[in-house]
């Protein structure tokens, strides 16, 4: 039995080695694809091509008795790595005549990411950091575009210092709130203005499938090349008004971060055995615990700024607190029928999205379980 098991394991190891060789070959081909896309200004992410390829491979897998979900999992993970490797080829420069791009706050994590992307696209990039303001006039004198990426609590002040930019210079910001920064840019600069909000963190290795929100400010025809450049990087663009953006971020960012913060505070005060909690966790609880824990591995000031950035965030949190209290009252009455009725109302509000989210979450939970070691 031992000899037979050893032989089979050896054969499996040989197949695994062949898989590594095939993956290496695939990545090499992807690098060539990246060079072609770079030359012709094609986005690194092509959703139609990806969907067609996955559908074809799923059919082929099924015909060979291989679970279609298995081959899709392998290919999606491989494609994620492929998008990262395509970055190495650089990107086509859509506005080669543009004067220098100045990134205010370019020494920060998000600033460094965008400096890298602009440099990979062939633009001349300068950084205006907190220690460089005595040289600001020289750095900004020939700017073709200025991108502001500084902490939220300093954004308005920094923008209002940018009052002597060339008239045709594009002024943009990367802040997670938009109404106040956009207004400050419009008041400080008479030229083209656009508000940007990257919906991802600075450690994102590739912009493929990421979202960049933009809010038009002034002279949108002057920065259309910038939006297209972002698409070439692989991101999806979502246009929205500054007011609508900030209303959405109240739920997407402020309330979500605050509830994670409160749950973390609650855990710390209850002081359970964390190692034991982890060992007892189902995949869904482990994932929830990870999402809370990751918050506390990051910059506290950043999240404080996001949550406290506007009165409407506080108002939303207060309404959530009130509804939380109402839900507790429901539990204390032990009225199961009322609970089911409230549950059904929310289910109806989600509509078809509920089933879709169930499917998506099942895939996430399976991936979380795959990475768990007991």
From TrEMBL:
Gene Ontology biological process terms, A to Z: chorismate metabolic process; tyrosine biosynthetic process
Catalytic activity field: prephenate + NAD(+) = 3-(4-hydroxyphenyl)pyruvate + CO2 + NADH; chorismate = prephenate
Domain Chorismate mutase: 1-90
Cellular component, GO, one term: cytoplasm
Compartments in which it is found: Cytoplasm
The entry's keywords: Amino-acid biosynthesis, Aromatic amino acid biosynthesis, Cytoplasm, Isomerase, Multifunctional enzyme, NAD, Oxidoreductase, Tyrosine biosynthesis
Domain Prephenate/arogenate dehydrogenase stretches: 99-361
GO molecular function terms attached to this record: chorismate mutase activity; NAD+ binding; prephenate dehydrogenase (NAD+) activity; prephenate dehydrogenase (NADP+) activity
Major localisation: cytoplasm
Pathway noted in the entry: Amino-acid biosynthesis; L-tyrosine biosynthesis; (4-hydroxyphenyl)pyruvate from prephenate (NAD(+) route): step 1/1; Metabolic intermediate biosynthesis; prephenate biosynthesis; prephenate from chorismate: step 1/1
Similarity comment: In the C-terminal section; belongs to the prephenate/arogenate dehydrogenase family.
NCBIfam families reported in the protein's UniProt record: CM_T, PRK11199.1
Matches recorded under PANTHER family: PREPHENATE DEHYDROGENASE (PTHR21363), PREPHENATE DEHYDROGENASE [NADP(+)] (PTHR21363:SF0)
Protein name per its UniProtKB record: T-protein
Origin organism lineage: Bacteria, Pseudomonadati, Pseudomonadota, Gammaproteobacteria, Vibrionales
Gene: tyrA
